[in-house]
From TrEMBL:
It holds the Pfam family HTH_1. The keyword Iron does not apply. It comes from Rhizosaccharibacter radicis. Keywords: DNA-binding, Transcription, Transcription regulation. Belongs to the LysR transcriptional regulatory family. It comes from the Bacteria. Residues 42-99 form the HTH lysR-type domain. The lineage of its organism: Bacteria, Pseudomonadati, Pseudomonadota, Alphaproteobacteria, Acetobacterales. This is LysR family transcriptional regulator.
Length: 332
């Protein structure tokens, strides 16, 4: 039973501890005991009962939901109105309707109880890590590096339900789309917490067959005559970076295919479609298997992308803390 239902039942039982006629379900004595503390608690219970009445649409329906008599619910609402000195509900033989004051009270009551639910959940989460954990990671990095670790994490924390989202789109952590996002590169300033958990070096690669057909680029400028495969999302570089004689520079590249993830670019490169600039976590395995070759390494600026876990630090649930600590230890 959530906070809303608990408080509503407690309020109703404070008015009348007798169950509704014909209702065989027992009313827990703990609710009656919980209904007796102070005025602040009474007001919280009043909020919950009033919301139940509005949601159910009538005193009789609310009474059935709360396992009490309709007269008990009506008296509880009367007491709320007497205390406030305003009419909250307009009664008719067919239905109840909210006055302007009732609408304001209902909206405020809902917000207060939602915050109370959230507070209790946060407190509960400080104990044993449990609940749903939503994680986002780039498609290739997630498949190759993150997903293989999830089995071990699940063994350590069996009460956490993992929801893994593999996408190169940037999901909204602050807005609640995910709990933890694993991201590459420099991140914009925000109120989110960022913890570095690794790094990724980039390199330019091509398939041996492609190089045999089109020749091997010897300088960055040679790429102007090649099919360069690139990313299509907003943070993709408009040009590839290089270093010559200690000086860094960029060179615009063009190609016939764009993709939203590095693994797809690597597959296209392996197929001989063109040249790609990908992370070593993708390319190293293909190079070892002889399906890709690194090129222009003498001009590689040695840039690395930091790999970071991004999450909301304030009131961080135990499940988020457990995962961030785990991934930081095992991903490096």
């Amino acid at each position: 039973m959530d906070v809303h239902a608990y408080l509503a039942v407690a309020m109703a039982q404070q008015m009348d501890l007798r169950p509704a006629p014909g209702n065989s379900r027992p009313i827990p004595s703990s609710f009656a005991a919980a209904a007796k503390p102070a005025a602040g608690a009474d007001r919280a219970r009043a909020l919950a009962l009033f919301i139940t009445v509005v949601e159910q649409g009538s005193f009789s329906a609310a009474a059935r939901a709360l396992d009490v008599t309709p007269s008990t619910v009506a008296r509880a609402v009367d007491r709320i109105e007497e205390r406030l000195g305003v009419r909250l509900l307009l009664r008719s033989t067919r239905a109840l309707s909210l006055t302007a004051e009732g609408q304001a009270y209902h909206q405020t009551a809902g917000r207060i109880l939602a915050e109370l639910d959230e507070a209790e959940q946060r407190i509960a989460d400080t104990g044993l890590p449990r609940g749903r954990l939503r994680i986002s990671a780039a498609v290739a990095h997630g498949r190759l590096k993150v997903v293989p670790l999830l089995g071990r994490f699940s063994e350590l924390y069996p009460h956490i339900l993992i929801n893994i989202l593999l996408t190169d789109a940037v999901l909204d952590v602050a807005g609640g789309e995910v709990d933890v996002a694993i991201r590459f590169g420099a991140l914009p300033d925000s109120n989110l917490t960022v913890r570095r958990i690794g790094q990724n070096r980039r390199m330019i690669v091509a398939a041996p067959g492609y190089l045999e057909r089109h020749g091997t680029p010897r300088t960055p400028e040679d790429l102007r005559h090649h099919n360069c495969l690139n990313f299509d999302f907003k943070r993709a570089e408009p040009a590839w970076p290089f270093r010559r004689d200690g000086q860094d520079f960029t060179l615009p590249v063009r190609g016939t295919i764009e993709a939203n993830n590095g693994e797809t670019l690597a597959q296209l490169a392996v197929a001989g479609v063109g040249i790609a600039r990908i992370g070593t976590y993708i390319g190293d395995g293909e190079i070892e298997r002889g399906r890709l070759r690194p090129i222009l390494e003498n001009f590689n600026p040695g840039d690395t992308d930091p790999v970071s876990a991004v999450f909301v630090g304030a009131g961080m649930p135990a499940r988020v803390r457990a995962f961030v600590d785990f991934i930081a230890e095992h991903l490096r």
